[in-house]
Amino acid sequence: QDNIPTVYHVTVSWNQTGTLAYSVGSDTYDWQTDSLTYNKTEGTGKWECADAKVNITVTNRSNAAVKASIDQVKAQDSLTVTGSASALVKVDSAASEDLAAPGTEQKGYLTYTITGVTGKITKESTIATLTVKIEAAN
């Protein structure tokens, strides 16, 4: 009987589509005639979120199938991100059934749809981290 060890090689790549933008509002200065000073009111920022998606490609070059899912989305401290994740996907083995023939890499796709972001950011930074979980597809 042949001994065929399982070897895993999975690559996760992503891109963002749609619009996800933050605009900083202007500060307002009101002149105070009693104290002869300006009273500053900080402008509030505004999020634009239109068909914003994180599209994830899971490429399997392993000789076994894997399952991939969006495990968690964690927003930066001052923000809240709302959205929905696509269902778990099974990505087949890249190995050929004929042990002498070359295999073919397999791909699976996940999507996280961002429906809203609230909170204030002060500079360009990471909005959130999205974790993709890869596990054996026994």
Structure description:
The chain is 0% helix and 59% strand. It has strands at residues 10-23, 28-32, 37-41, 46-60, 66-75, 79-85, 89-91, 106-119, 128-136. The strands form three sheets. A four-stranded antiparallel sheet has the order 1-4-8-6, with no helix packed on it. The protein starts with 9 loop residues before the first strand and ends with a strand. The mean pLDDT is 91.
Instruction: Label the structural class.
Output: mainly beta
How do the helices and strands follow one another from N- to C-terminus? EEEEEEEEE
Instruction: Report the β-strand fraction as a percent range.
Output: over 45%
Roughly what percent helix?
under 10%
Instruction: Give me the side-by-side strand order of the main sheet.
Output: 1-4-8-6
User: Helix count, per DSSP?
Assistant: 0
Q: What distance separates the N and C termini? A: 21 Å
**Poorly predicted sequence stretches spanning 5 or more consecutive residues:** none
**Strand count, sense and closure of the main sheet?**
4 strands, antiparallel
Q: What brief labels describe this structure?
A:
138 residues, 4-stranded antiparallel sheet, 3-stranded antiparallel sheet
Helices and strands in order:
Layout: E1 10-23, E2 28-32, E3 37-41, E4 46-60, E5 66-75, E6 79-85, E7 89-91, E8 106-119, E9 128-136
Antiparallel strand pairs: 1-4, 2-3, 4-8, 5-7, 5-9, 6-8
Summarize the structure.
The chain has 138 residues and is mostly beta strands.
